Amino acid sequence: MPKNALTVENLTKIYSNSKTKKQNKALNELTFEVKQGEVFGLLGPNGAGKTTFLSILGGTVVKTSGKVNVWGFDLDQNPRQVRASVGIVPQEVNLDAFFSPRKLLELQAGLYGVSNKDTITDLILKIVALEDKANAYSRSLSGGMKRRLLIAKAMVHQPPILILDEPTAGVDVELRNNLWENVKKLNKEGVTIILTTHYLIEAQEMCNRIAIIDKGNLVALDTTEKLLERIKTKKIRLKVANFDLNKNLSMKNINFKINSKNSILVTYEKNLSNFNEITNYLNQNNIKIEDISTEDGDLEDVFVQLTKH
User: Fold this and answer.
1) How far apart are CA 265 and CA 27, in angstroms?
2) Who's near 43: CB < 8 A, 6+ residues apart?
3) Strand, coil or helix: 161
4) Which of 195, 250, 254, 300 has the CA that lies 20 to 30 A from 123?
5) Residue 293: predicted pLDDT
6) What is the mean pLDDT of residues 104-108?
């Protein structure tokens, strides 16, 4: 049974306004765990508390209460070991334009106290496919290369957990696919990945389990597959033969949308109706079905359903 790479218990962060005396609870008793070796999605709308949580892990924000354990180290008792166990890839591209990838990685390793004999600069550059650009100026790198270099910087101290904060924001489809290939490769080599993203289709394709937070509260935590099963609405597109546009279709708990004389969209709640009832009704009305295609909901539907965003 896989061990926990990260355990969060009743994590709370309250920001206080000294002028108005008002308190804002950015995180409200957040509790979840991340298994060793999984790709874990942390999703939520803007202002949900994701950045606060990552800042607590990174050591730039102090929690109000609760427990955080990273790779067996307690955040209160071993803060340095916690930070050493995590590599955070920021959303913003913050690279020195006049340093080469090799020099940037060596400097970053020095900041983490990695000795020269223990550095694995060449290996990291190979992993992120930047060995050919090792000595080029960072300013000459493409957008995708800069993103990969950010991942490389987060890996210099060989952390067992890699946190990707909106890693594909603003990059094109080709660069995004290239980046995910690198992430999958790292995960296969045993690195635990925690991902925040606004591209929900990415989370659906990449993550084993997903936590959704809203206004500091955990509103869902489950496997991607089980989250998708929560979608109540079913959509079915029917191709029909010469439907009479003057005819009305009406069934309890069923919504019929007539797109054309050859196309009807049927929407219904899974737990209230079944498709056999619909086909029987259509047959009784002499409507010949030529083809059927389903439009299953995706993670975005779950997200909207849970957060109302």
Assistant:
1) 41
2) 50, 196, 197, 200, 203, 210, 211, 212, 213, 303
3) strand
4) 195
5) 85
6) 92
Give the chain's domains with CATH numbers: 1-85+191-229 (3.40.50.300), 233-296 (3.30.70)
Give just the sign of the alpha carbon dihedral 89, 92, 93, 98: negative
Strand partners, 255: 267
Nearest to 59 by CA among 88, 36, 37: 88
Q: What global pTM score does this model have?
A: 0.76
CA distance 184 to 186: 5
**Are 152 and 106 contacting, i.e. CB atoms less than 8 angstroms apart?**
no
Query: How many residues are recorded in the chain?
Result: 309
Q: Are 79 and 154 in contact (CB under 8 A)?
A: no
pLDDT tens for 161-178 read 999 988 877 667 777 787
Across-strand partners of 149?
A: none
Question: To the nearest 10°, the Cα dihedral for 49, 33, 197, 23?
Answer: 0
The pLDDT confidence band at residue 138, using thresholds 50, 70 and 90, is: confident
Enter the tokens of residue 99: 């340093």
Q: CA 253 to CA 245: how far, in whole Å? A: 21
Q: For the purposes of burial, counting CB atoms within 10 Å of the CB of 272, is it exposed (0-12), middle (13-18) or buried (19 or more)?
A: exposed
